[in-house]
Design goal:
Length: about 300
């Protein structure tokens, strides 16, 4: 089944006038699907929220915020908005675009229309979401999740597939992932529950906390602390590093690996490990050796704090 809805200002369904030179309008559309599918959503200046539903329908609510004093002004501004809501098979695509800013516009005043998406999808769906100026929230879904925003936080629920999320200006929170997870931000904290796969986390200005990782973990920050629990044996090399905080790692008591821990601003505490020392320092700023006979490398680095390795 293929259907498409291309909307201009004349097809808007709900109109509400608000104070402070803003008018809000809403568009709603429902698509019938059958089984797993992919939701693609791309917008500017607005948030994206996706929640799981109990039936085989994709329900879309488009919220438009227009910088206008009157309905007539809003109608003129909406003529320049390209809003596409379309379906192909079980996949649904949402896209909002506005014309380019004219020369000489004031920064922050363009575009005069912001578009946010609120979508309910079957729990089996995958998502690919992008916005240039808002947060992204995704509920518990079974499919692969991709999320990108240039100016907001990302919050992800219990995800049943691979997760890839990036923001240039906010925090990232992940409840759990049944596959690998890649989380990157240029200005916020990263927190994650259990990750049943490799974890690649990085931030330029915040803390990183991972409850549990089954697989390789890479966690790097330039301005905060790092803490992680590695469940079971170390299957691949792991690396945790920060330039401005502490590093805390918990490992399985029976895990076999090679430890290489170095700090420039504190000490290394690995008192719970059975370790064959290779390198150490009098001030406890470096500790290297084989744990339980050795194995993959666990590399820990900090320039501004202590390092702690404990067993569970």
């Amino acid at each position: 089944m293929n259907s498409a809805l291309r909307l201009t200002f004349a097809a808007l369904l709900t109109v509400a006038v608000s104070a402070h030179a803003k008018i809000e309008r809403t568009v709603e559309k429902t698509f019938a699907v059958n089984g797993a599918g992919l939701l693609r959503a791309e917008t500017f200046g607005g948030a994206i929220r996706v929640t799981p539903g109990a039936d085989q329908q994709v329900r879309v609510v488009v919220k438009q915020t227009i910088k206008a004093d009157t309905d007539a002004q809003a109608d003129e501004l909406l003529k320049k908005l390209d809003l596409t809501l379309e379906q192909e098979g079980n996949d649904v695509r949402l896209m909002a675009k506005y014309e380019r800013a004219p020369s000489g516009f004031r920064w922050g005043s363009w575009p005069p229309v912001q578009v946010a998406f609120e979508v309910t999808v079957p729990a089996s769906f995958a998502t690919k979401l992008s916005t240039s100026g808002g947060g992204i929230t995704v509920g518990d879904l079974a499919g692969k999740a991709e999320a990108h925003t240039s100016g907001g936080a990302i919050k992800l629920g219990r995800m049943g597939g691979e997760v890839r999320a990036h923001t240039s200006g906010g925090s990232i929170a992940l409840a759990s992932a049944s596959g690998p997870a890649t989380l990157k931000t240029s200005g916020g904290n990263i927190s994650a529950g259990p990750v049943a796969g490799a974890a690649d986390f990085s931030t330029s200005g915040g803390n990183i906390k991972v409850d549990s990782v089954i697989g390789a973990v890479r966690a790097h920050t330039s301005g905060g602390s790092v803490s992680a629990t590695i469940a079971g044996p170390l299957k691949e090399d792991c690396s945790l590093a920060t330039s401005g905080g502490s590093v805390r790692v918990a490992v399985d008591r029976a895990a076999a690996f090679r430890l290489d821990a170095v700090t420039s601003g504190g000490g290394v505490d690995a008192s719970g490990l059975t370790i064959t020392l290779e390198k150490t320092s009098r001030d406890r700023s470096r500790l290297a050796g084989a744990v339980n006979g050795g194995g993959p490398l666990l590399k820990l680095r900090t320039s501004g704090g202590s390092i702690s390795v404990r067993t569970e």
